[in-house]
């Protein structure tokens, strides 16, 4: 199976601090891959390099066969990379449907002049975009289309972020702690949604998640970072039994 993303020798230094050190990493097509590790392991730094917020000190990223290492975030979005954030970043005083429409901007072709003059091609594109936004909100299970994002329940805000990310038609979706702050029922519903992203939309997913029940239940492969270095990689079962992972999380190796 081909890889949608390949990372080779990814290193990031902030002054004298080596946050990520020579990490190799692959995400196959239609795979759910989780990146885990203790606090300060370098997960978010790696995530931010994939999405283009940081540039690696060394190493390179290849997305669907093209080197994206020096591309800006909007260029990566055009290439098929979408993401959500650990801290929700919605447009609070815009409706749910308008938040999703905002996520489509990298795919829309109409000009400002065309919009002002209400040209037929622009009107048609706007109609199709709104229909697509409604379909995405239905897909994630969110019904409050015209509700301001800030007035939605917390779990629905998380779902709205995913719908907005899907609006750019990504091939790879990065989810940064999507179940953070959720109760068990909300977590179960979102876990089911993540599985549907792969099954029904054919996406690859890179997941940072502290809830290990989510990671172990849904991941095809798990990669573990500790102090910026990859210490383990494999199936959830393999990683769960790895002594290096146990030591990193618990501070001591298992005995007996």
Describe the structure.
- This is ATP-binding cassette domain-containing protein.
- Residues 5-252 form the ABC transporter domain.
- InterPro entries: AAA+_ATPase, ABC_AA/LPS_Transport, ABC_transporter-like_ATP-bd, BCA_ABC_TP_C, P-loop_NTPase.
- One of its GO terms (molecular function) is ATP hydrolysis activity.
- The protein is of the alpha/beta class.
- The chain folds into two domains: 1-80 and 170-256, Rossmann fold; 92-168, no CATH class.
- The protein is built from ten helices and ten strands.
- The protein has helices at 43-51, 73-79, 96-102, 112-116, 120-140, 154-166, 184-201, 212-218, 236-240, 243-250, and strands spanning 3-14, 17-28, 32-36, 58-63, 66-67, 81-83, 172-176, 204-208, 221-226, 229-234.
- The chain has a six-stranded mixed beta sheet, with helices on both faces.
- A hairpin with a 2-residue loop joins strand 4 (58-63) and strand 5.
- Helix 3 (96-102) packs across helix 5, helix 3 (96-102) runs parallel beside helix 6 (154-166) and helix 5 (120-140) packs across helix 6.
- The protein is globular, with a radius of gyration of 19 Å.
- The mean pLDDT is 89.
